Amino acid sequence: MNKVKDKSKRGWEFTGDKGDFRLQKADRSSYLYFPLVNEGGMMSSVSPKLHGQTTSGHNTFLTPPISVEDLHNSRASRNFWIHVEGKGTWSAAGNSARQNADFYTEDAEEVELEAGFLWHRVSRSSKELNLSSQITSFVPCGNDKVELMKVVLTNNGETQQTLTPTAAIPLYARSADDLRDHRHVTSLLHRIFTSDYGIEVQPALSFDERGHRVNHTSYGVFGVEGDGNTPEGFFPVQEEFIGEGGSLDWPEAVVVNRAPDIIAGTGVHREGYEALGGIRFTTVTLMPGESVSYVVIMAIEDQRMDLEALIGKYGSSSSFDRLLEENKAFWSEKVNTVQFKTGDADADQWMKWVTLQPVLRRLYGNSFLPYHDYGRGGRGWRDLWQDCLALLIMEPAEVRNLLFDNYAGVRIDGSNATIIGQHPGEFIADRNNIPRVWMDHGAWPFMTTMLYLNHSGDMEFLNQEQGYFRDTFMSRCRERDHSLDLKEGSVLRTASGDIYKGTILEHILLQNLVPFFNVGEHNNIKLEGADWNDGLDMGADRGESVTFTSFYGSNLMDISLLLRDLKERTGQKIIEVAEEITILLDTMSEKVDYESISGKIALLNRFYASAPNKVSGVKASLDIDQVADDLAQKAEWIFNHLRQNEWVESEEGGGWFNGYYNNDGERVEGEFAEGVRMTLTGQVFPLMGHAASEDQVPQIIAAVERNLLDEKIGYRLNSQFGGIQQNLGRAFGFAFGHKENGAMFSHMTIMYGNALYKRGYVNEGRKVLESLYQLSTDFEVSHMYPGIPEYINESGRGMYTYLTGSASWLLLTMVTEVFGIKGKLGDLLLEPKLVGPQFDAEGKASIKTMFADRELEVLYKNTEGSAYGEYQISSVLINGAQVTLQRVSEGVLIARAELTSLQAGQCHLIEVELVKGK
Length: 918
Ligand code: G1P
Fold this sequence. Notes:
The chain is α+β, with helices and mostly antiparallel strands. Among the domains are: about 180 residues, Alpha/alpha barrel (Glycosyltransferase), CATH 1.50.10.10; about 220 residues, Beta-galactosidase, Chain A, domain 5 (Distorted Sandwich); about 100 residues, Maltose phosphorylase, domain 3 (Sandwich), CATH 2.60.420.10. It is about 30% helix and about 25% strand. An eleven-stranded antiparallel β-sheet has the order 1-2-8-9-10-11-23-17-14-13-20, covered by helices on one side. Strands 6, 7, 12, 18, 19, 21 and 22 form a seven-stranded antiparallel β-sheet that branches. A six-stranded mixed β-sheet has the order 24-48-49-54-50-51. A hairpin with a 2-residue loop joins strand 46 and strand 47. Helix 8 crosses helix 22, helix 9 runs antiparallel to helix 10 and helix 19 runs antiparallel to helix 20. The protein is globular and about 90 Å long. The protein starts with 11 loop residues before the first strand and ends with a strand. The N terminus is likely disordered. 1-O-phosphono-alpha-D-glucopyranose binds next to helix 9.
């Protein structure tokens, strides 16, 4: 992988040590956008030319909803116009037809962007006009649905200048659905009010998927000059502002410097037009070097706005500055819950942006940023569980409840609800009635829960009781329950109608046992609707996911080990499960031959018949050891089966794992006459768990390097299959090198890196993670701000920035694998896998993170400069006091009690000496 050539060519550069960065000529890169958001539900995005959008949900867009192409093609932006007396018209945001016409000429303006947690500033200057602007944007933290923008204009000339400023922000004020469904008709609903400070639109009705209803939501754009002066007047109607034949990038009202249509404070209101937050400020004369500032407030409210309160809180330059500082502090504190200090200070700062990403995903879901032009804000089941991985590190206090609530989405057939409600634990029956099961869904909860148990030691969690989800789908969507009365709610009941609850452990067992029997004709688990790769969605009949077969196999083994730990730690000898589930624990009653596909299916059908969307309510008490044995046998069978049947021998020597069978029952991967077909996904789960044997690991690594590593874009998700693969999935309809067809898909690449670290292939794992860092930060090619993208496309561009589950995985991998801050059922296991350049010049590397409710700074000292594999832990000091070392095969254990005895609320230093030796 090529190293980034030269830092100055990187584009952006960090300006301090807090993650703030600067980018010259930011307007010279397309598709750039920055997120501005708060916990109150305001979700904005802003581009270097102040394009983007502002919304609080699918049905409440303040600005017109956009897709990423609109960032450069739409003329609607958060514009701020200046009429310069005697000289003409200028957009302080750079959005005027004239400035666009100058773009490729010598007259193009200088644009600099600065940004940090979570604020955005663009400075622009016009040599011709001797004027400069600095526009700062942020969404104040808290619960108000508000975005703020401060514009500072400076006269850089040697003579005085007279300026007439006009803010012009289109007020779309309705549902995203209305963009292509009666956009005009819905503008007739607009009721447009003016006041002392600006324009407020409260549509009379809302027309969207919820029907025609009286609307209460209100949208406004308000402005003040300096420390609270009211504007002069308003242009509330878009068509009047732009004039006949005009447009938002050359509006008549500004170009001819027309007086405002409505004078401030007259309370005139208009109805039935596309609205505009058009605010005319008083004409001002600036002496040479003098500046003037304006604050623009964009707000969404559930009812008409309390203007006095709004302006009181946000309506002055000084409150803007104060709130900006508060906002910076809020977000910095959030990202600083984890801090890395290695030999590469830039990489450490870059990780701060990665750390922010899981929080952004929690707030935006998978929607509302320009690439994310779909969905209604929710997250899917898979994402729900994986986002918890990062939360366990960043917001650990919240996680227990979250996990517990999420388990309420499991169905008795081991599948789960896929429509996730607004509130934790709320799952909604699919009224569109699309029968679909993602076969990977059952595998993730145990992985996340295991991380939680390792971090907390909270074994009690496994015995806590939770309900199950029920809708009209049963037997993994193969059958419909026509008898169901959804008025009874989406909860599983017993034959007598009581709500049924089972332990969390029972939920986990079901999720992993049912798939074991749900096999296709090659005795691997069926692909069903798709697996992790949402794009493999055309193999529901005969497709099989071999790679998730290995994931489930590893889970079965790890659950078995967990049960043994449970017994050892707590003395628990019995577990209780719904009596129907004993069918799935066949070795304890009537053993099925696992080689027999029909035997497995018959058993599964027996199970489905015994629990047809209801259970008897009777529980069986089982011997914990026998259950553990049953699970281990199943796991072992899977591992042997995969190693014997799914290993692809390469003509070049070695081999790799086949990951899939397609809908024609054909093996997907191998070396064919038309070329090599290989998937990274197929390798990741055998490596991450136990399926790949020790001697298979280096062979897989070699095959990945040979077939999937591309010098330009990193580790591809798959090699080029050619053709559209109608027997596998829509992903192959995408051009090769894009998204789920052969791009560098960060999520899978990081999981690959994680798996290599887990297997002790540290230098190889580091190479994988490093490739992602280099690709993402090579601005000349990736054109993205600090952070990781969902994927890197064929041309090297970083795509779908900010909202990606891969950030959780990178954070997790850095903490638990690279720095080796691992939990072991509540105790702290230190197992560093740091390599040379990660230590600084003095041989030090440190991490600040939470464990056992304590803030810890773990400082590794490798003063001898040993390579990974050569060093071991020789001593550990907590706050300067020696700890008696408890060595385990992986590293060194520090008992939880040792940590909980430390004072809460302050940071404790753990110094770990590394010396040569094995
Ligand atoms: C997205 C989805 C994730 C899915 C993946 C591959 O990845 O969110 O659930 O598994 O595509 O189809 P992400 O954007 O989270 O990286």
